[in-house]
TrEMBL record:
This is Aminotransferase. InterPro entries: Aminotransferase_I/II_large, AspAT/PAT-like, NHTrfase_class1_PyrdxlP-BS, PyrdxlP-dep_Trfase, PyrdxlP-dep_Trfase_major, PyrdxlP-dep_Trfase_small. Its cofactor is pyridoxal 5'-phosphate. The keyword Cell membrane does not apply. GO terms for molecular function: pyridoxal phosphate binding; transaminase activity. CDD domains: AAT_like. It holds the Pfam family Aminotran_1_2. The keyword Transferase applies.
């Protein structure tokens, strides 16, 4: 049978994840120090795991509302009000999803008609472009630069807007660069969204992991933006809950209703055990979250200092747990650098162009790993660079 003819052209055109392809090479190698997959090296705090265990012991193994447990949605509403300074109706403007990835997919499918353009800044998380394409949208990539700290500039965004533009996707702090966009620039971006009637998907998954001065500001909190923004957030990064696969979306009721229509048929509801754990995280998880953030902050400072000492120009990212050093001075492509570093020194990092063409000449290093391994990895990387 010719299976090529049986597979959807839309799916066949989607590339495999550059991250996953690279790390298949690492599987089963105990000698490798991985600066790769973006996952906290902390176990989920015990009291959150205990809440999940307790929910199972109490026999809470049923479906929930399609929207999610009301108790969790109320907690999300309180958290979003206190952290983002935005009020949502927990009964109708909050949807609990299977990770932020599902929320992105739901939002794009709910908003797009074939041919609608979706603007996003790059380098960006590897799922954005495929998710847009799978929803029959047209991806429009706006490159960011090292010189601007990989922040999105309003003038670059405006140049990309056309009559077909429908959605803007934002992710600050950003994966893979750790970039944040200054509030004054965010205000200019918001003005463009209002002017051109764009809906914004604001992926806030790293928002608690901010290291510079000042609190995090979501574009959804700016004047005129709540009504045109879908705020996407979850528990994987700040609360070290990747395996629980739980996220949420906050938006005006008509947008949540549209997303819920897809969710109820594709997923029905997020797992009740994960929802119980998430409720505990929101109610009692701040202390553990701040402790983890402080540890990431120290590792960021160490890694940025060492990479610059090695001669790989690296800006200091404002958030997340990635650094994005410039390796172009070595004369190697991102993939060649990553492959040769892995072969020569058993250090795994992701080629920057896995996150889009704007990432060529860079390397993503995740510092959600132990301090001792980071120190060893930097010694090995320094030896490798000197050998070139």
């Amino acid at each position: 049978m010719n299976y090529t003819d049986k597979i959807s052209k839309q799916v066949a055109a989607i590339p495999r994840s550059g991250i996953r392809d690279f790390f298949e090479l690492v599987q089963g190698r105990d000698d490798v120090i991985s600066l790769g997959v973006g996952e906290p090296d902390f176990a989920t705090p015990w009291h959150i795991r205990e809440a999940a265990i307790y929910s199972l012991e109490k026999g809470h193994t049923s479906y929930t509302s399609n929207l999610g447990l009301l108790s969790l949605r109320k907690a999300i509403g309180r958290y979003v009000r206190d952290f983002f300074h935005i009020d949502y109706n927990s009964s109708s403007e909050v949807l609990v999803t299977v990770g932020v990835s599902e929320a992105i997919d739901l939002a794009l499918r709910a908003l797009l008609n074939p041919g609608d353009e979706v603007i996003f800044h790059s380098p960006c998380y590897v799922s954005y472009l495929p998710s847009i394409s799978l929803a029959y949208g047209v991806p429009v990539d706006v490159p960011t630069t090292k010189e601007d700290g990989f922040a999105l500039k309003a003038e670059m965004l405006e140049a990309a807007i056309t009559p077909k533009s429908r959605v803007l996707m934002l992710n600050f702090p950003t994966n893979p660069t750790g970039a944040v966009t200054p509030v004054d620039e965010l205000e200019k971006i918001a003005a463009l969204c209002i002017k051109h009637d764009l809906i914004v998907l604001s992926d806030e998954i790293y928002c608690e992991l901010r290291y510079d001065e000042g609190e995090h500001v979501s574009i959804a909190s700016l004047p005129g933006m709540k009504e045109r923004t879908i705020l996407l957030h979850g528990f994987s990064k700040a609360f070290a809950m990747t395996g629980f696969r739980l996220g949420y979306a906050c938006a005006p009721e008509p947008l949540i209703e549209a997303m819920m229509k897809i969710h109820q048929y594709a997923m029905l509801c997020a797992p009740i055990t994960s929802q119980a754990a998430a409720l505990e995280a929101l109610e009692n998880g701040e202390a553990a979250m701040l402790e983890m953030r402080d540890s990431y902050h120290q590792r960021r400072d160490f890694l940025v200092t060492r990479l610059n000492e090695i001669g790989l120009d690296c800006h200091s990212p404002g958030g997340a747990f990635y650094v994005f050093p410039d390796i172009s001075k070595t004369g190697l492509t991102s993939k060649d650098f990553a492959m040769r570093l892995l072969e020569a020194e058993d250090v795994a990092a992701v080629p920057g162009d896995a996150f889009g063409a704007a990432g060529q000449g860079f390397l993503r290093c995740c510092y959600a790993t132990s301090f001792e391994e980071l120190k060893t990895a930097m010694l090995r990387m320094e030896r490798f660079v000197k050998s070139l």
